[in-house]
Amino acid sequence: MSVIYDVNRESLWAHRVNEISSLNYNVEDNKAVFDIDAGANITDASQNTPRISYFDVQNINIHACTFDDFCDVAEFLRGSCNAFDYDKSLLESFRNQFEPEQIIDFYEFFDDYRLQCAQKGNMVLYHEVVPLAQMAENMMWMSNNEIIGELTSDGFFTTNIFSDVCSLGFYGNYRLGEGAYDIGGNLYDLYAEYDIESTEENPIVAVTISDFGSENRISGKYVVEINSIDLKKATPIELYAYFSYYDSKSNEDWYNDYNYDSTFRRIYNSNAFELEGIEDFTDKQVNLFDVLTKAKAGIISQEDSAIKGKLNFSKYLNAYTKKYIERCLEIYDEILTRLGEE
Questions:
Q1: Which of 107, 182, 226, 336 sits 20 to 30 Å CA-CA off 21?
Q2: Do the strands 25-28 and 3-6 form a parallel or antiparallel pair, or are they unpaired?
Q3: How far, in Å, CA of 76 to CA of 318, rounded?
Q4: Do the Cβ atoms of 264 and 243 come closer than 8 Å?
């Protein structure tokens, strides 16, 4: 089996700091006083490098600036608040993509790059890029006067205007799969998302289960390594993770609809898994080829030899359209052909 159950696993899509965000300085006599021992965010005083203040970046348009301009914005925010402890070497790795005076929309650039990481399942890099995207958004809000605060005489905010809502709250919860499923007569909500340890080469999907319409969520997550799934003896929860992942690779808009009308749902609705309860969903091993064969047989009419091999829609009119059933058969055949080749 490729799945493990981790009772302590939490969703790590949304970037979070380990503590409430706070300023990296105190305000005394209307000036910012930095503690040089406060941590990695603080510029080493021995370098005698002047700190970048809001006065230095207030006229930078994050939608149209140079790479050096963005670096100044990043250093101002990093020096001001502990929520923005970004990887300097990562930021520098982007420099060669731009000409020295090239004007770029860095809000759009890092937001798109973050999403590209998510689409590829590289959550390790995703979380390293998130602070850069968050800083771009914060600077945009400040430029639009949507973040307002008093400044010290040397150009630092007197209070922490970088709240978790603005700096940490908008970069999470793109789910690979989401929906309600009847499992053994009870409804459950299923959620699939990339795990924090997922990379492009080794995609890992975490699945959460909860009672439908309630807050009674099973603690922890089922963590599935996609490359380790054996389709000849996989559990339904592994197949849910498997198809959620592969559907996202072929659907550019997966993050808008969470793959609701997914391949897995079209297979599951055939009742070919024959599950008696949630334990079967998480533990019962099945052969995907056999499941698809049953699913196909269940949707094709066997009643009238004159129309054998064609669809008997009278059994499904109340639930499915002709187009839906035909698409199900196409999907079943595509997967069966692929499995047969393997």
A1: 107
A2: unpaired
A3: 61
A4: yes
Distance CA 89, CA 94 (A): 9
Residue range 6-63, pLDDT digits in tens: 877 766 554 444 456 789 999 999 999 997 644 444 444 444 567 999 999 999 999 9
- The answer to which of 22-26, 69-73, 97-101, 143-147 has the lowest mean pLDDT is 143-147
CA distances from 262 to 13, 26, 75, 167 (A): 21, 52, 43, 33
d(CA 96, CA 196): 28
Strand extents, DSSP E, the chain? 3-6, 25-28, 31-34, 177-183, 186-194, 204-211, 221-225
- Site of tokens 């393997």: 342
Q: Characterize the bridge pairing of strands 25-28 and 31-34.
A: antiparallel
- Report the C-alpha gap between 192 and 199 in whole angstroms: 16
Return the DSSP state at 157: B
Q: Answer yes or no: are the C-beta atoms of 164 and 171 closer than 8 Å.
A: no
Q: To which residue do tokens 């970046």 refer?
A: 57
pTM of the model: 0.72
User: Among residues 134, 243, 244, which one has the least CA distance to residue 193?
Assistant: 244
How many other C-beta atoms are found inside a 10 Å radius of the C-beta of residue 84?
24
Q: How many angstroms separate the CA atoms of 97 and 70, rounded? A: 14
User: Where are the alpha helices (H) located in 105-235, listed in sequence order?
Assistant: 106-119, 123-143, 164-168
- DSSP bridge pairs for 186: 183
Q: Where are the alpha helices (DSSP H) in 182-253?
A: 236-250
- Sign, Cα dihedral of 215, 216, 219, 224: negative
Spatial distance between the Cα atoms of 318 and 313, rounded to a whole number of angstroms = 9
String of b and e for 214-226 (b: at least 16 CB within 10 Å)? eeeebebbbbbbb
* CA 31/CA 336 separation, integer angstroms: 70
Identify the burial level of 336 via C-beta atoms within 10 angstroms of its C-beta, where 0-12 means exposed, 13-18 middle and 19 or more buried: middle
Checking if the pLDDT of 317 tops 70, the result is: no
Tell me if 142 sits within 8 A of 1, measured CB to CB: no
Identify any residues that bridge with 5 across adjacent strands, giving them in sequence order.
222
